[in-house]
Write a structure and sequence with these properties.
By secondary structure, this protein is of the alpha+beta class. The protein has two domains: 84 residues; 104 residues, Orthogonal Bundle (Arc Repressor Mutant, subunit A). Helix content is 55%, strand content 20%. It contains eleven helices and seven strands. Helix 1 crosses helix 5, helix 2 packs across helix 4 and helix 7 crosses helix 8. The chain starts with 6 loop residues before the first helix and ends with a helix.
């Protein structure tokens, strides 16, 4: 099952741009047409369920799809994955993607929200209570973090009236930001589950 708000949400917009730069619009349009025929979805949706995109890409390029997919990903991130969770680091090279992290951590409310759910998953109401963030702006900022892929839904809490309320946590354990040659370099230590649940990182050789 495709998990919403996963690491793939974070990578998808930049990956789509990288794919178009490498293949060109004409080829991308043909791939999108085939995706609609086979799976009833466009490029943006298929990238978040990368197994489907991969299967159509192989129709066009055969075994050459491996090299292409690696190239797509290398344009936006470097991956260092080892067995221990402490080694699950990715370096973000795409500046638009790096900007999402930079802006999120520069916003005091968003940073407080991230810090609150770094080590445990919580429902939104509890997060806002801990952070002492106003409800209206707090919900908006949490939704932005979810849409950007920095927060992921992880389980439920059952309310007193029996309703299931989603809990959220970060996709990472740690983030480092540096300035190198006038570029922002963001390194993310992913949670093991973020690696395991990413269809992009599972399909593309790294």
């Amino acid at each position: 099952m495709l998990l919403e708000n996963s690491l793939d949400n974070l990578l998808a917009p930049s990956l789509r741009k990288s794919i178009e730069q490498n293949l060109g619009k004409a080829t991308l349009n043909k791939i999108e047409q085939r995706l609609m025929e086979r799976h009833g979805m466009g490029i943006a949706q298929a990238i978040k369920d990368f197994y489907k995109f991969d299967s159509v890409l192989r129709e066009f390029f055969g075994a050459g799809a491996d090299g292409l997919e690696t190239k797509f990903l290398q344009n936006i991130i470097d991956v260092k994955q080892q067995k221990k969770e402490t080694d699950n680091w990715i370096t973000i090279k795409d500046q638009e993607l790096a900007k999402i992290f930079l802006e999120s951590f520069a916003d005091e409310d968003k940073k407080a929200i991230i810090d609150t759910v770094l080590d445990e998953s919580l429902i939104i109401a509890t997060v806002l209570e801990h952070c002492k963030v106003p409800q209206t702006s707090g919900y908006r900022k949490i939704n932005q973090l979810i849409d950007n892929g920095l927060l992921i839904s992880n389980g439920y809490e059952v309310s007193t009236d029996g309703k299931k309320i989603k809990k959220y946590e970060t996709i990472f354990n740690n983030v480092k930001m540096d300035l190198e040659k006038n570029m922002v370099v963001v390194k993310i230590q992913l949670k093991k589950t973020s690696f395991q649940e990413s269809t992009i990182l599972n399909v593309i050789p790294n």
